[in-house]
Amino acid sequence: MRKIIVILSAVLSCGLIQAQEKGIADELLSMLGRSQVIAHYSYCDASGAELGNGVANIQGRKYMVSEGKTMFISNGATLYTVLSDRKEVYIENAGGKDDIFSNLSEIIKTVEDLKWDGSNLSFTLDLEGVGKLLCKAKVQETPWNDEAQFSVSDGILNSKEWIITDLR
Asked: What do you get for the CA distance between the two ends of the chain, in Å?
């Protein structure tokens, strides 16, 4: 799960990597500030074998990332990690070690070969213990959307069928 978070951190913030790519950084940050951004992403190893894919919806400091049966949902103050296959939810304060907007300075140091054409983003990420990963995302900008997508339903949080672990 930590690998997903690191990759998403890079996907969502890779424009901040190096000074010579300041134009890309400015464009991506501007987009995040004015619109909801939807990124359909994937990442593969050096052989080209896909290791994962998902969708990230970002609206300011709020986001919802879905990869397989795992979702990361943040309303800017609280981070929910939802493991639907295990019917578990972990609740933390946003900004902690598992929040994808945390520790970006360390993550983005490993990003190389950044390419951005206005809708397609790609870069290489070297993860310790995993190796080099090729990350790609199709990014689209949409109007601000319903805030409800950045919270977990009361039906889940109040259900006796789900395990809720509140770490706040």
From this structure: 20
The alpha carbons of the chain give a radius of gyration, in whole angstroms, of 16
- Name the phi and psi angles at 29, rounded to 5: -65, -40
Q: Are 94 and 76 in contact (CB under 8 A)?
A: yes
Give per-residue pLDDT as tens, 111-165.
778 788 888 988 887 777 778 889 899 989 888 777 778 889 999 999 999 999 9
CATH number of the domain encompassing residue 147: 2.50.20
Q: How many angstroms separate the CA atoms of 22 and 17, rounded? A: 8
Burial of 52 (0-12, 13-18, 19+ CB in 10 A): middle
> What is the C-alpha separation between 127 and 157, in angstroms, rounded?
34
The pTM score is 0.77
- Please check whether residue 11 is in contact with residue 137, taking contact to mean a CB–CB distance below 8 angstroms: yes
Closest CA to 72 of 53, 46, 90, 49: 90
Which of 81, 95, 57 has its CA nearest to residue 162?
Answer: 81
Domain region containing 108: 2-166
**Number of structural domains found in the chain:** 1
